[in-house]
Write a structure and sequence with these properties.
Elements (H helix, E strand, L loop, with lengths): L6 E5 L4 H12 L3 E6 L2 H11 L2 E4 L5 H15 L4 E4 L10 E2 L2 E2 L2 H28 L9 E6 L3 H4 L5 H22 L3 E8 L5 H4 L3 H8 L11 H13 L7 E4 L5 E3 L1
Parallel strand pairs: 1-2, 1-4, 2-3, 4-7, 7-8, 8-9
Antiparallel strand pairs: 5-6, 9-10
Helix pairs in contact: 1-2, 1-9, 3-4, 4-6
């Protein structure tokens, strides 16, 4: 798909990888809507890139629908959806204060996994109704998992489970939507130098980075963004989970 002129939605677009991929899409000529719960951050990025901010909790059905409707009214039906919105609440299943609070586990699953599916289903409905492009394609959806789906560490039960759910969602979603001309793929980054990562307690950051094989490093947000653009432009990529680790080794699932 040629990105120039296409309407795009980026969830979690107010910061980190979401903001970076929104900037890359805008530079490539896309009309970008940022969906985020943080109004101030989303509106700041939208102003910077000439985009539009829609404030919504992606895990809320009505709020997600309203955000997609607002994006459609502003830019037309989205041809591109990048699901980046997510949270990480570290905590052991049984800690010093007893079992992990169920609401903490549920919150991570709701935002990371259910929020991804919610925005996928809503954007896919808009894409399905749009006229097919010259190659028969109607849209591209890229979700964000994590290597934690495969290699979750201590204190990451909720996060790893949510990201593993996104991995499991990818192929059936691609098969469901292929007949409508919509491709579905997922990127599973390693540790990324984002504000969310850098706000974790130092001991948690160290425990995570200590597990990385040498030589390696944190993934840069622009590496994630460039991979998103490559997937969008490459029609042959569909139903794949692509790992992006600190050594820049990218391999299909």
């Amino acid at each position: 798909m040629e990105i120039k002129g296409q309407a795009a939605i980026v969830t979690g677009g107010g910061s980190g990888m979401g903001a970076d991929v929104a900037r890359h899409l805008a530079r490539a000529g896309a009309k970008v809507t940022l969906v985020d719960v943080n109004r101030e951050a989303a509106e700041a990025v939208a102003k910077e890139i000439g985009g539009f901010a829609a404030i919504a909790d992606v895990s809320d059905a009505a709020a997600g629908e309203a955000a997609v409707k607002a994006a459609r009214q502003r830019h037309g039906p989205a041809r591109i959806l990048i699901n980046v919105a997510g949270i990480l609440i570290p905590g052991r299943i049984v800690g010093k204060d007893g079992p992990l609070a169920l609401e903490k586990f549920s919150k991570v699953i709701n935002i990371n996994l259910i929020g991804t599916f919610n925005m996928m289903r809503l954007a896919a409905a808009d894409m399905s109704a749009a006229e097919a492009l010259a190659d028969g394609e109607r849209g591209v959806i890229i979700s964000t998992s994590s290597v934690a789906a495969y290699e979750g560490q201590i204190g990451q039960a909720a996060y790893a489970a949510s990201k593993a759910g996104i991995v499991g969602l990818t192929l059936p979603a691609a098969r469901d939507l292929a007949g409508r001309g919509i491709r579905v793929n997922t990127i599973a980054p390693g540790l990324v130098a984002t504000p969310m990562m850098l706000t974790l307690p130092p001991e948690i950051q160290k425990s995570l980075t200590d597990t990385m094989p040498y030589p390696s490093r944190l993934v840069r947000a622009d590496e994630y963004s460039r991979l998103c653009l490559h997937i969008i432009e490459n029609v042959a990529i569909n139903g794949e989970v692509i790992r992006l680790d600190g050594a820049l080794r990218m391999a299909p699932r």
